[in-house]
Amino acid sequence: MLSQEQLEMYRSMTPGERLQLTLRMIDEAMPFLFAGPADVVSRRFELIRRQNDERNRLMLEGIARSKGMP
Question: Would the pTM of this model clear 0.70, i.e. be above it?
């Protein structure tokens, strides 16, 4: 959980500053995504794909509900 100070810092950032922070965090994390044996990396990316698919499905269901679609 983020502290109140951190939350306030993020809220006061410009969109460009938040994007720059996001891109820096991606650059720092990227090598770890590809670390390990090929089967482990494969499973890691499959999990990411499943999580993204589930998140997208839930968002689409929410959008459909908000528009009054069944």
Answer: no
